[in-house]
Amino acid sequence: MLKIIVPTIMLFPVTWYSNNSKIWINTTSYSLLISFMGLSFLNQPNNNSNNFSMNFFSDPLSSPLLILTMWLLPLMIMASQYHLKKEPWLRKKSYLSMLISLQMFLVMTFTANELILFYILFEATLIPTLIIITRWGNQTERLNAGLYFLFYTLIGSLPLLVALIHLQNSMGSLNLLTMNFWLKELPNSWSSNLLWMACIMAFMVKMPLYGFHLWLPKAHVEAPIAGSMVLAAVLLKLGGYGMMRITIILDPTTKAMAYPFLMLCLWGMIMTSSICLRQTDLKSLIAYSSVSHMALVIVAILIQTPWSFMGATALMIAHGLTSSMLFCLANSNYERIHSRTMLLARGLQTLLPLMATWWLLASLTNLALPPSINLIGELFVMMASFSWSNISIILMGLNMLITALYSLYMLITTQRGKPTFHTHNLNPSFTRENTLMSMHMLPLLFLTLNPKTILGPTLC
Amino acid sequence: MLRRALRLGGGRGLVTRGPGSRGGGSTPGKDWDGKVSEIKKKIQSILPGGAWNPLYDTSHLPPEHSDVVIVGGGVLGLSVAYWLKKLEKRRGAIRVLVVERDHTYSQASTVLSIGGIHQQFSVPENIQLSLFSASFLRNINEYLAVVDAPPLDLQFNPLGYLLLASEKGAATMESNVRVQRQEGAKVCLMSPEQLRNKFPWINTEGVALASYGMENEGWFDPWCLLQGLRRKVQSMGVLFCQGEVTRFVSSSNHMKTTSGTEVTLKRIYEVHVKMDHSLEYQPVECAIVINAAGAWSGQVAELAGIGKGPPGTLQGTRLPVEPRKRYVYLWHCPQGPGLEAPLVTDISGAYFRREGLGNNYLGGLSPPEEEEPDPGNLEVDYGFFQDKVWPPLAQRVPAFETLKVRSAWAGYNDYNTFDQNGVVGPHPLVVNMYFAAGFSGHGLQQAPGVGRAVAEMVLEGHFQTIDLSPFLFSRFYLGEKIQEQVII
């Protein structure tokens, strides 16, 4: 693991000591190199985990997420170049430092061996994200958004701290590698229900679950592009990853306690998809679509079958890449027209045809078109939930329909139609933007050829 | 470094923003009340839900971002805001900000006008606009209804317009009336005997023909329309700001047309709105700017760089709207024409109408080109009435020989020096500036139709209901005038 952590920490001196004109190229290229180094984690010789040290390990569940995180840093840096153009050098370097520190915490979170270490890093990722949202966001509402984000996540995760310390005291160790072996059934009592709630709520708020999702549209809309990308692609998956790890020790309470959350998810999926149909703000639409996709992941994790875990992992990776790409596309619109309203940027296909290709591909993967990994994830989750309860297929099917509806609505409103007068002088797509989109889309398309890398620990 | 990063001081630290002006009492009693409300405001701003700047109070400033910024809050600006909100397909789709320099409207053309509406134009689009406005005004309480607010009383007096023509102008008047009837206006032609029968107080010497509008013409209260629009538009979610637009920050693209000529297309992405009586300004990031600044539209257009170029080219074509001062006089005449008098426009250009029920009349005259008064201030020249307005009126209506001027006021006419008709639609080079200005005295009566046309242009990309393409800006460069046939 040191081969990842030390280079990531050394990215700090790279930003601060680079020549001013070279900070972007230096940080982007070095972070890209780090992500290529991380590809070696995909080599999982057996179903067990790769243990790197006493503190870090990687597992078929965490390695795809880890690679996603590392892959995103160069993309985030590339995406932020335009809106930071006019800032002074000190601020640019501070922004990059925030991104790098966030990256460092995330890398360590996904490979943490021990749950308390995981918790500390989980909370530590909030700080750079909060700074990025409130300091570099666009509107005055960003302060409001930052507050919602911070307090929702903190309040959700404080009970988790208490639960983890109690578990440490009673079990003696919270090491993820050995947790499988000292499993005891939780007794059937109110205290184990409370323990279950305490452990799960943090991740529910992070995912977010439908009832606790208020922070997500605000944070996504007000954050600058890199903030939106990392929020959508990685931070939400922290919740999924954490839930998958912690539900190991929470059997059999999960069977009974998960019901209300499953209901909330199934209902929330349809609600948030329907809200997407009524959205006028592009980023808000993508944010609500994230909630909808994540609700599928929560359903999968709570059902706890091998197929659903495979679907959850695949969906997390696929959604990370797709959502981040959609935010980049929305940002490219915003940089040209200075407005996030969809109506004001119509008919872009005639003006920017290559960008329209990326829009098309992103929308198609968002609506889970076969044979993309989005479809594989959704399909596995649907099949698992059908076997859990036959009726859920109605809700899932309705959700797929509405997802297709709003993805196509977004595509048609922005790309098709007659271009307006005020889009006459759009800057053509920069090479940087095209690279950004292709670097999102190519992994997504290549994973279609070999999806078993992202199908998680229960692949048999 | 970390401390600086943690400082939540707002996105653009290089912009100078002074603290807002505070007016407070200095006596201890008042101070305590002021302090309590200030503390309450601070607490409310900290709780989630409000905009918050930790350094100073910014509640009087416009938001930092708005999709559409409408420069000018008169009847045209408010009409555009109303139709933008009415025609948007989902509620809350477009954020609109109306920037008005003077919330008392002390110099706005809207409230200083006599409020007439008529369809007796020669340009078909003008007739269609006025017809639509008349139906809008008749159904105003359906269009502008706000929950729990009293209905509007526009005091629409549908008494019609009476235009008089001499021998020379009779042919023009006949062809005009034919066009008007084709468009659906109800106008009738009257001979001098019919005139004398209907309006015995008219002296028909020199009059060969008269056209009288029988429906949808008359006058109404422009203040009421303005307040109704303001109320409705605020209820639809449009933000108002009192301030002056001082700067447009734009980005340019140098492009080549298909024939190889180079053009520079500009896009305004930021509008600097300066607060009253202070140097404080707020940069508002915007996607579309609508120029509805009335008499000052020309100045606003210059701010955007319209007209800065070699004359004769498209870059050098200015927006030819300038303020012209017009006087309106109010007099009392007990033997006057009475309650059924329409708004009469004489051959000389002098006009008058009844005002209220106390034998008062309003009237005036558009001065010829050479004698335009200085538009620097709104001072009234009573001598103009004595020399130029009274004689033709007294000749036309003998009862007016014994009138007594009660008062007078002056207002600006956003005069289009090119062809005295409005400018609507986008500018070819500044791609996101739309015009709704320059109506040369007809802005009030054409406002609902023009507002809808501009909203359609912004939201759909073309005119849908009334085709105002002859009114586009490009006619100034191409030299295509659409002028009203003036009846002499």
Automatic annotation (TrEMBL), chain A:
Residues 1-109 form the NADH:ubiquinone oxidoreductase chain 4 N-terminal domain. The chain crosses the membrane at residues 23-42, 62-82, 94-110, 116-133, 145-167, 194-216, 228-250, 256-277, 284-303, 309-330, 351-369, 389-412. It catalyses: a ubiquinone + NADH + 5 H(+)(in) = a ubiquinol + NAD(+) + 4 H(+)(out). Keywords: Electron transport, Membrane, Mitochondrion, Mitochondrion inner membrane, NAD, Respiratory chain, Translocase, Transmembrane, Transmembrane helix, Transport, Ubiquinone. It comes from the Eukaryota. It is a multi-pass membrane protein. One of its GO terms (cellular component) is respiratory chain complex I. Signal peptide: none annotated. Belongs to the complex I subunit 4 family. Core subunit of respiratory chain NADH dehydrogenase (Complex I) which is composed of 45 different subunits. This is NADH-ubiquinone oxidoreductase chain 4. The lineage of its organism: Eukaryota, Metazoa, Chordata, Craniata, Vertebrata. The gene is ND4.
